[in-house]
């Protein structure tokens, strides 16, 4: 099953992204769908963006806050 995040999905990193100071497990929001990637914004608790970059879908886990019906 392909896991392609959609705009406004909340995602977590599945791997460290060296050079951007991001580590596995950090949470961000998809802000744009790109050709083969998505732009993800990472913000602190006050809403201040500390990183925004294009990532491949296989680097991300889409998080769900509500029950999802089994496929």
Automatic annotation (TrEMBL):
Pfam family, one: DUF4926
Family matches, as InterPro entries: DUF4926
Domain of life: Bacteria
Protein name, as recorded: DUF4926 domain-containing protein
Native source species: Halovibrio salipaludis
